[in-house]
Structure formats: C-alpha cells, structure tokens
Design brief:
single chain, alpha/beta, 6-stranded mixed beta sheet, two-stranded antiparallel sheet, 10 helices, 8 strands
C-alpha cells in the first residue's frame, strides 16, 4: 500500500476521458515517459505496440466532448483505500499530494490539469492514447496519463511497476509542469539529441524532481490532518528506480533493436535516470540542476 487507508482523496480534480477518435500520436512539444517508449520502439522496429496496451478499467460520470470522447470525474476515488485498490484512482489521488508539495516550493504555483485517458482523446499536443502513454502538454498545461502504460513497463521492459513506481511516473510528468511554469523549458529549448542535450537534461531533471517529491511525500496531509501517503519501503524505492531505468533510452533500444545509439537519445540512459532519481531522493530539489553539470 502507498496511501494511508483513511486519507481523504475526494478533492482531486482529475478528469477521466474516454472513447474519442484516434488521430496522430502526440507531438507539438509533448514531453513525458510514455511517448519515448512508443516512438523509439516504432522507429527501431516498426512494431505496433497497441496490442500490449488494453483499455483502462473504471467508471466515470461523463459528458460528450467535441472529438466524440466523454469526460467526467474519476469515480469511486474518495479514500486512500480506493487509491490503493485502483490504478485509476491512485494516479488521480497523487495529484493532491503533488500540488500541495509544489505549492510549498514554487512561488505562485499554478496547478496543472490532469486527465486519465481511456482509449484516445485529442489534445493541443496531438492525440493522447493507450499507444502513447503518459505525457505533459505545455500548451494547455495538462498531464495526460493512460494507466495501462504500466502494463507496458511490466510486459515489455520487465519493470514491476508497482504502486510507488506509478507515483514516480505521475511525479515525473508534474516535474515537466514545473519546468514549464518556472521558465526552464524556455531557457533550455530543444537543441537536438544525445546524452548531454537539453532534451535529456530536461527529462533527467524531471526524474530528480520526482525523487525529491517521493522523499517528502509523507509530509503532505489531507484536510483532516491525515498524512496522504505512507513511508515507502526499500522494496518500493527499488521498484521506482527500476521503473526509471526501464525507460532509459539505451534499455529501450537494446530491448527493441539489439543495439544502442547514444547520439539519438532524448530521455537519457538507464544509469542517468537512476542516478538523477536517486539524487533527488537523497539530496532534495537543490541538487536537481541537470543543466549546471558538464555530463548529466
């Protein structure tokens, strides 16, 4: 279990959207963990991964959107028990903890939107779908997450992708929101690929932010004074580190193509991702400037 069973998570504002049309995969400045997995495997093998990712389960009170999708709140997501029992609720509930955490660390913090996607839906950055996985769209400052992404981590890359690993994924995407609203993305725009590129540094900083959050997440409390989350076990931390390593560019390339090409990296190697998550977890946000070092 990751959440305290009695924690009140009913105030989360996460939307659930399902049933939209299928269009082009995410683009237009999208950043996040899911897209790199699908794009790299497709580029190196031409394999369609949609078969790995079934539709998410769950219910929502919904209304029709312009793209044919329906949108509503994540239902049956009121307590920590609900979050421990449902991936859909867990990735919604952690938004409360993340928003409280970042409000303490970023002056004038503005909460991002978050949408749990079932099937596919249109966004300003392209289509969010179960073929793409989690990403942050700077255009509308929204995190899009298809919970079935965790099946991909398990089935294709051998990660356990347990409760805390799922929290890490959400926290990573919120890290991109911080980079957007604090001007980091503007200051360090895309300058190509490779282990020391701005793109890789951006992703590694989001990993570091996620590690720092997980180290402090038990400090955030609900409106009744109950801590949202439990202190993670060593096994859960290992699982989160494993998830970070599983989406390293070198690991994905080796798994899908049998070789690695560092000059094509956009998110960083497994060792880099592991290192920066651990840096945030051990030393906090003050050590997360991946742009200040010669080799991240």
């Amino acid at each position: 279990m990751t959440f305290n069973p009695d924690a009140d998570v009913s105030d989360n504002k996460v939307k659930r959207r399902s049933g939209g049309r299928t269009a082009a995969i995410a683009g237009g400045g999208v950043v996040g963990l899911g897209a790199v997995v699908v794009l790299l495997i497709s580029a190196f093998t031409g394999v369609d991964l949609s078969g790995l990712l079934g539709g998410a389960t769950g219910t929502s009170q919904s209304q029709q959107q312009g793209d044919g999708s329906s949108e509503g709140s994540v239902q049956s997501c009121n307590t920590g028990t609900d979050a421990n029992n449902s991936v859909d609720c867990r990735v919604a509930a952690v938004s409360l903890v993340l928003n409280d955490y970042w409000a303490k660390h970023v002056k004038g913090y503005v909460e991002p939107g978050q949408v749990n996607v079932e099937g596919s839906t249109s966004t300003p950055c392209g289509t969010a779908s179960n073929d793409v996985g989690p990403f942050y769209c700077p255009s509308d400052q929204t995190v899009y997450i298809d919970p079935t992404f965790f099946q991909l981590l398990k089935q294709q890359f051998g990660a356990e992708a347990g409760d805390l690993a799922q929290v890490y994924v959400v926290a990573h995407e919120y890290g991109h929101h911080i980079q957007n609203i604090t001007g980091t993305m503007d200051k360090y725009p895309n300058n190509g690929t490779g282990p020391t590129s701005n793109g890789v540094r951006t992703e590694l900083q989001a990993d570091c932010y996620a590690g720092a959050f997980i180290a402090d997440m038990t400090q955030e409390k609900d409106k009744n004074g109950v801590a949202y989350m439990k202190t993670p076990t060593d096994a859960q931390i290992k699982d989160a580190l494993n998830a970070a390593a599983a989406v390293g560019d070198d690991h994905i390339q080796q798994q899908s193509a049998g070789y690695t090409n560092p000059e094509s990296w956009t998110h960083g190697s497994s060792d880099q991702r592991d290192k920066w998550f651990a840096t945030g977890y051990k030393y906090g946000l003050g050590k997360c400037d991946t742009f200040a070092v010669a080799t991240p």
